[in-house]
Amino acid sequence: MVRLRAPVAGREAGAVVGTSSYLNASVPDSRLEIGATAFTPAVWGSGVNTDAKLQLLAYAFDEIGAGQVQFVTDVRNRRSQLAIARLSARYEGTLRRYQKRTDGTVRDSVLFSVIAEEWPVVREGLLERLRSAPMASVARAGETTNASK
User: Fold this and answer.
1) Where are the beta strands (DSSP E) in the chain?
2) How far is it, in rounded angstroms, from Cα 86 to Cα 10?
3) In which order are the strands placed within the sheet that holds 90-100?
4) What residues does 26 pair with on adjacent strands?
5) CA dist., res. 147 & res. 35, Å (int)
6) In Å, how far from its chain's centre is CA 53?
7) FRET label pair with 61: which of 25, 77, 105, 142, CA 20 to 30 Å apart?
8) Does position 147 have pLDDT exceeding 90, yes or no?
């Protein structure tokens, strides 16, 4: 669950504005996925997603020692693909007939990832994006945020 630490888009500090989770962890492979992400449209483009992803990536790489963090999205979800790319995750490929949608159709999925060796540069890029974000509840250089607690 993602809560705001300061008001954003008419929402009060502490308001729940979305979710983003760890999925499909493989301890032997030092790999996990970040997904099941959804935010209220009112905070789209505000930096909230970037802040939440920074916290999830930092915990994955810095605290539990992940070697790779994956992001997987429906091939039809262009908005999500663009948001993932803005995180500096690298496009890995398209997984054909990857899983069934709730309507019973089969989807292709687009896979992105960040690996441990890329994490320091990705972190700096995310912090730079947050410094110029249009909201007050995001990380500043050297700060730790609480947006995704």
Assistant:
1) 2-3, 16-26, 31-39, 68-74, 90-100, 106-115
2) 25
3) 2-3, 16-26, 31-39, 68-74, 106-115, 90-100
4) 31
5) 16
6) 4
7) 77
8) no
Distance, CA of 50 to CA of 142 (rounded, Å): 16
pTM of the model: 0.86
**Ranges of H-type helices in 30-118:** 48-58, 78-86
Q: What is the pLDDT of residue 6?
A: 87
Interacting residues of 77 by C-beta distance below 8 A, sequence separation 6+: none
Backbone angles phi, psi at 13, to 5 degrees: -55, 135
pLDDT tens-digit series, residues 102-114: 999 999 999 999 9
Please determine, for residue 95, whether its predicted confidence score (pLDDT) is greater than 90. Answer: yes
The CA distance from 33 to 21, in Å, is 8
- Helices 119-131 and 48-58: crossing angle in degrees, nearest 10, is 150
